[in-house]
Amino acid sequence: MPRKIADSTVRRLAVYLQFLEEFQQHGYPTVSSTALAERAGTTSAQVRKDLSFFGSFGKRGLGYDVSGLVRRLHDILGLHHRYRVIMVGAGRLAGALVQYAGFRERGFQIVAVVDTDPEKIGVSWRDLRIEDAAHLDTIIARERVEIAIIATPADAAQETVDRVVAAGVTAILNFVPVQLHLPREVDVKNVNLTVELETLAYALTHRRSA
Amino acid sequence: MPRKIADSTVRRLAVYLQFLEEFQQHGYPTVSSTALAERAGTTSAQVRKDLSFFGSFGKRGLGYDVSGLVRRLHDILGLHHRYRVIMVGAGRLAGALVQYAGFRERGFQIVAVVDTDPEKIGVSWRDLRIEDAAHLDTIIARERVEIAIIATPADAAQETVDRVVAAGVTAILNFVPVQLHLPREVDVKNVNLTVELETLAYALTHRRSA
DNA sequence: TCCTGTGAATTAGTTCACAGCG
DNA sequence: CGCTGTGAACTAATTCACAGGA
Asked: Which end of chain B, N or C, is less surrounded by CB atoms within 10 Å?
């Protein structure tokens, strides 16, 4: 396990894993870097380089054993473990994410939902009761939460995240378009949906001038 | 307007715009590259370089005129125009995205929602009636749609997108964890929520070994 | 022969550092 | 002076190209 792996590499590994699981379900025993690259939208050299940072998993002349590589990628990404996740904020996006089957399937289990709105507190989403965000620290300790997903209104995000971090959470997935200011030891990933649409707008307007 | 701008640069410009609009609302007349960088989580040199690809918008010794720069970034990103967007798929994530105020505020107007499920067709979301995906091409033409957001089940995504593209849409925001195969002239942005969580899992498991 | 694994070459992206204008 | 704008230097990421094992 080497020094420092680029974020872009880690993201591609997660993508490879998705397609490998598909191959696995279709019963393919092996896969070449070329076949995997085609599916994942990259090049065979990139696939081999990405994997080579972690070891030599393939057989020359043959390719990679699908099930074996799935296992290795699970280990590399740290998915052998089930992660306990809190959803902070109970708006529509939060609701969609809580219901999103893909998370649970891949070992991310949402164990609590909190909000500050008295209208929402007490309401149940599936088998989860929305709790009062005032008790954030107690809930995080009780549920042994490791990851927080932030989906609050913009003006509440920083304050809320400070409390989440104070309660011991060190990994955050942030959907709020705000730059969170946090200690270095906390990992944050930002998902900014308007940025995605705006890059499309950019592509649309600058296309003709190529 | 130069040759080829890196995707990373375009994304940062969109982020700068978000913070500049905040500065504008707070009534700040000017902003320095340092102040903007701090907010956006980058460096002042990066801010200046990003902007310099498109022109010289600042005043030496003073910084950037906030309102002026907001206007320039609007133009650069192509946000002077209102985009007509179709939501393909009417599941929970689609619902959350349709309601998401941020899109409309920034000029992305969802003008139609389609699904194949007879239970959903005819149901209204806000002022939008969910229509039959069988009529995708008619709807896209009728509503003069320019951007499609894909939020279907995984196995329907490619087929659906083929029909969307055949109907003339050239910009796609894809939330389905599938690699879409499309003609080069179509722009696609993929948002893969499990990949985001898995990079956090990677960070969590590899932290201690640093 | 086929396809991996990997140094070397290349290309892309970021940071430095400073000239020059307000 | 202060802060931008920008080549030049540097660092990171991708692609090439081929040696070598199955």
From this structure: C
| CA B190 to mean position of chain CA atoms | 10
Give all strands of the β-sheet with B83-88 in edge-to-edge order: B124-125, B128-132, B108-115, B83-88, B147-150, B171-174, B187-190
**Which residue, among B22, B19, B23, B43, has the nearest Cα to B33 in the 3D structure?**
B43
Q: Which of residues 28-67 of A touch strand D (CB under 7 A)?
A: 42-43, 45-46, 48-49, 59-62
State the Cα–Cα distance between residues A92 and B97, nearest whole angstrom.
Answer: 8
Average pLDDT of chain A, as a whole number:
95
Round to a whole number and report the distance in Å from the CA of B64 to the C1' of C22: 13
| Contact between chains at A96 and B95 (C-beta distance less than 8 A) | yes
Report pLDDT for A210: 42
**Residue A209 banded pLDDT, cuts 50, 70, 90:** low
Read off the pLDDT of residues A180-199 as tens digits, 9 standing for 90 and up: 999 999 999 999 999 999 99
Cross-chain residue pair A189–B170, CB shorter than 8 Å: no
Helices first, then strands: H and E counts in chain A: 9, 10
- How far apart CA A182 and CA B46 sit, in angstroms, is 21
Beta bridge partners of B188: B172
- Answer yes or no: do B191 and A196 touch at CB < 8 A: yes
Helix/strand/coil percentages in chain B, nearest 5: 45, 20, 35
Residues whose CB falls within 8 Å of the CB of residue A126, separated by 6 or more in sequence, listed in order: A98, A99
* Tokens read off for A95: 């609701």
Strand partners, B87: B113, B149
Q: What is the pLDDT of residue A101?
A: 84
What is the pTM (predicted TM-score) of this model? 0.94
> Sheet holding A171-174: strands in order across?
A124-125, A128-132, A108-115, A83-88, A147-150, A171-174, A187-190
Q: What are the chain B neighbours of A54 within 8 Å (beta carbons)?
A: none
Chain C bases closer than 7 A to any CB of the protein: 1-7, 12-17, 20-22
Q: Would you say A128 and A98 are in contact if contact means Cβ atoms under 8 Å apart?
A: yes
